[in-house]
Structure formats: structure tokens, C-alpha cells
């Protein structure tokens, strides 16, 4: 997450930068400045919750595949 109106949102392409270092990169700008949680607390918590819930679901899915494949 980054603020669309902050330095990161105006000076960089965060997704492109992060893809140089990681295979699974997701993110988006929130319409605010630098202090995302203070400026847009609801949007911040919603984005973080969605990210961690999807991550948890993916881990469960992968664990199921491993269990099936190891039989």
C-alpha cells in the first residue's frame, strides 16, 4: 500500500520496483498522502485484512495439494 498523493505514489512505480525483488507482488495506492493509516484508517485495515485472508486461504489450498500429492 502507498499513498497516491505522497512521494511514493508520485515519484515511483512501487509494483515494478517490488517485482525486481519478489515473485508475488500485489498492491495499490490509496487516495491519501504519506500517513496512510492516519489519513484513511478504514481503507487501510480493509486492504490489510483482505491481503492476509487471501494469504491464509492460499496456504490452506497449498497444504491440501501437498497432502493429496504425498499419498
Architecture overview:
- The protein has 71 residues and is mainly α.
- The protein has helices at 7-11, 14-19, 36-39, 41-69; strands at 2-3, 29-30.
- It has a two-stranded parallel sheet.
- The mean pLDDT is 87.
Choose one word for the global shape. Answer: flat
Mean pLDDT: 87
Radius of gyration: 16 Å
The helix content, as a percent range, equals: 55-70%
The parts where pLDDT drops under 50 for at least 5 residues are none
Side-by-side strand order of the widest sheet: 1-2
- Structural class by sheet pairing and helices: mainly alpha
Number of strands: 2
Order of helices and strands: EHHEHH
The proportion of residues in beta strands is 5-15%
Largest sheet: 2 strands, parallel
Distance between the termini: 40 Å
What's the number of helices? 4
Can you describe this structure in just a few lines?
By secondary structure, this protein is mainly alpha-helical.
Question: How would you summarize the topology of this molecule?
Answer:
Blueprint: E1 2-3, H1 7-11, H2 14-19, E2 29-30, H3 36-39, H4 41-69
Parallel strand pairs: 1-2
Keywords:
single chain, 71 residues, mainly alpha, 4 helices, 2 strands
Amino acid at each position: 500500500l502507498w499513498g497516491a498523493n505522497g512521494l511514493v505514489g508520485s515519484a515511483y512505480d512501487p509494483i515494478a520496483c517490488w517485482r525486481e525483488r519478489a515473485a508475488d507482488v500485489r498492491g495499490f495506492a490509496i487516495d491519501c498522502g504519506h500517513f496512510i493509516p492516519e489519513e484513511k484508517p478504514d481503507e487501510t485495515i480493509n486492504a490489510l485484512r483482505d491481503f492476509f485472508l487471501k494469504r491464509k486461504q492460499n496456504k490452506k489450498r497449498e497444504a491440501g495439494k501437498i497432502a493429496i500429492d504425498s499419498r
